Amino acid sequence: MTEVKIQPELYIVGAGPGDPELITLKGYKVLQNTPVVLYDNLANKELLNLTSEDCEKIYVGKQPYGNYTSQERIHELIKEKAFERGMVVRLKGGDPFIFGRGYEEILFARENGINTFFIPGITSMQASGYEDIPLTHRTLSESFWVVTGTKKDGALSTDLKLALDSKATVVVYMGMKKLAEIAAIYEEAGKGETPAAIIQHATLPLQKSVRGKISDLPQLALEQKFTHPAIIIIGAVTALKA
């Protein structure tokens, strides 16, 4: 009897911002058929209910400033499970190509002879509409900048200083630990009065937000006990009233 050769495949799938119903239809179908899923801390665990009973579910989360699974270990698991079971879904919160290191995992898989597929997800900044904050507005903001609050070396992105010179809406991911520094940069530029907002746990039942001047946002976040995961939005659109 001829042995069936395993065709290793990796699917990088965006889980969306939180609400499990916001996953794409394509992502939904792939989860139903995979024998292995490696899932992140920010991927809603309810999505695991879509998988079959015999699907192997492996947590490889990275909690901000806490315990985490190293990227090297994740790579090892991708390779091991792809050649062992054939198909592997890498389920990542938001969109895997927006501060999600999804492309790194695709490159690793290809270098090791694993076929790769990408299924995008709704990223957390797109959930700003849940708080009536549009990222663009015909008379207020013709564009938006998306920057990381924590680069590989732990520093705040220098692009923030370029962004504040524009009229664009600025969205900061992974920036809660740098909130005071962000506010100081705006104040030094004479823009401490700029409206801003924080949205925490976007699209989930425990979602909450706070709005104010960027100069006041660190104190407001402290008083109202805001933490991560959250996005910071800076610009006139955060002061709009429906």
Identify low-pLDDT runs: none
Roughly what percent helix?
A: 10-25%
The ordered H/E elements are EHEEHEHEEHEHEEHE
Total strand segments: 10
What is the radius of gyration?
A: 20 Å
Main beta sheet, described? 5 strands, parallel
Q: What class, by secondary structure content?
A: alpha/beta
First-last Cα distance: 68 Å
Shape: elongated
Task: Give the strand order of the largest sheet, numbering strands 1, 2, ... along the chain.
Answer: 3-2-4-1-5
Question: What is the overall number of helices?
Answer: 6
Oligomer: single chain
Strand content bin: 15-25%
Overall pLDDT: 93
Task: Write up what this structure looks like.
The protein contains 6 helices and 10 strands, in the order E-H-E-E-H-E-H-E-E-H-E-H-E-E-H-E. With about 240 residues, the protein is an alpha/beta fold. The strands form 2 sheets. Strands 3-2-4-1-5 form a 5-stranded parallel beta sheet, with helices on both faces. A 5-stranded mixed beta sheet has the order 6-7-10-8-9. The longest helix is centred in the first third of the chain and has 15 residues, at about 70-85. It is elongated and about 70 Å long. About 40% of the residues are buried.
